Amino acid sequence: MEMSHIKDVAEKVKQNIQRVMIGKEDTIDQILVALISSGHVLLEDVPGMGKTLLAKSMAKSLDCSFKRIQFTPDLLPTDVSGINFYNQKKGEFEFRAGPIFANIVLADEINRATPRTQSSLLESMEEKQVTIDGETRLLDRPFMVIATQNPVENQGTFPLPEAQLDRFLLKVKLGYPTKAEGLEILKRFKENNPIEDIKPVATSDMIIQAQNIYSKVHVSDDILGYILDIVEKTRSHSSIQLGVSPRGSQALLKAVQVYALLQGRDYVIPDDVKQMSKPVLAHRIVLAQSMRLKENQAEHIIDSILNEMTVPTEEQLQR
Question: Of 212, 31, 65, which is closest to residue 143 (Cα–Cα)?
Fold first, then answer.
């Protein structure tokens, strides 16, 4: 697959998802960025916004295996990863794979599970493998976790620790639809659910090929410096207690390379960095105590940092 073909594949997937989802083009683009860059997505919004519907539409648009895990307080780590059980007929232990052994895994309401169960995802998300009873099993490619969580309910939930939040390439919020979009939603879902008619438009091989070549997108030294300036500013900002780690800067680099491809370019421009900075960086910073109660404050701070940064000029990028 050529780099120019990645946009065509992504566009087909996007159009397929939009047969179900109304609007949300930027959100769909961001999830495609995560898919192609081998990352994971945390969808956070109030109930009924279409988080699960979006994840299912993405999975059905790809010719990939899909599993859904409903996270609850009584869910055990083995319910996610799998277990070795004793087969009495054969007189030996056999491995029964858990739902994590799929290409696309929907972790629904992830913050309802206990920290122990949440941590069972860490190895699979970072290393693309699962270790059970001392035996390591590799996960198939592509592998992607799409997790959802409800930010307004605190009772019976276990907030994700920073170490696990850092494993998600992007944190995405859907937001309310406009009135026109709301009208279209009512019309489209009036008689049946259009997700039942979704068919795959891309294969797992296509996604793997895209994952193997996106890193060839050109990134100039000035763009790399621009990314590092943004990251460094999060570490010295007065409203931020803990800034973005080196893993976060690498995540932003991967995201902007894929985003550039989705725009039909084989090189990165500053607008790509601006577009991806909030979904990649906002959930990786720890705000100062006085700022934590303000809604969307992390996104506002990233915006203010972007406004302060000196943007590389076209002449610099062409050097």
Answer: 65
Are 296 and 279 a contacting pair, CB within 8 Å?
no
317 pLDDT higher than 60: no
Residue 173 structure tokens: 């919020």
pLDDT in tens, 2-28: 777 888 999 999 999 988 888 888 899
Element holding 72 (H helix, E strand)? none
Those residues whose C-beta lies under 8 Å from the C-beta of residue 19, and which sit 6 or more positions away, are 57, 194, 197, 198
Residue with tokens 């009584």: 74
Query: Do the Cβ atoms of 122 and 167 come closer than 8 Å?
Result: yes
Residues in contact with 78: Cβ distance below 8 Å, sequence separation at least 6, in sequence order = 98, 132
Token pair for 118: 């949440």
What's the CA gap between 31 and 166, in Å, rounded? 16
Tell me the CATH class for 1-214. Answer: alpha beta
Element (H, E) at 281: helix 270-281
**pLDDT, tens digit, 9 for 90 and up, residues 59-75:** 889 888 889 999 989 99
* CA 212/CA 159 separation, integer angstroms: 34
CATH numeric code, 217-319: 1.10.8.80
Range(s) within the chain of domains with CATH label 1.10.8.80: 217-319
Torsion of CA 204, 256, 262, 271, to 10 degrees: 170
CA separation for the pair 219, 294 (Å, rounded): 35
